[in-house]
Structure formats: structure tokens, C-alpha cells
Amino acid sequence: GKTEEDALVAYLQGLGVGVRKAQQAKKAEEARKAEEARKAAQPAAAAQPAATGG
Q1: Separation of alpha carbons 12 and 27, rounded Å
Q2: CA distances from 5 to 14, 18, 19, 20 (A)
Q3: Rounded to whole angstroms, what are the CA distances from 3 to 30, 46, 54?
């Protein structure tokens, strides 16, 4: 019936939100790792002004 349909739609929308959040978290994690790798590749002296500059 109608209630079951609504429940199914809500469930699927919930899944979609979960997938989107997971993808965003994955992208954020990858970006963080890339940033760390970039900082590690720089000499410490060059990295310092960037860190204090905000």
C-alpha cells in the first residue's frame, strides 16, 4: 500500500544519503593524504611559512 511505498522511498533516500556521505568522506581522506604527502615532499623550511600563514 501507500505506507509501504513511502517507507521504501524513505529507505532508498536514506541509502542515497549514506552513499553520498561515504563518497565525501573518501574524497576528504584522499585529499588529506595528498596534502600530507605534498607537505612531506617539501623541505621543512619551505613548509613552515605556509603553516603559519593559515
Answers
A1: 23
A2: 14, 20, 21, 23
A3: 41, 61, 52
Q: Rounded to whole angstroms, how far apart are CA atoms 51 and 7?
A: 49
**Where are the chain's structural domains?**
2-53
pTM: 0.52
**Length of the chain measured in residues:** 54
pLDDT tens sequence for the chain (54 residues): 899 999 999 999 999 999 999 999 999 999 999 999 999 987 665 656 655 555
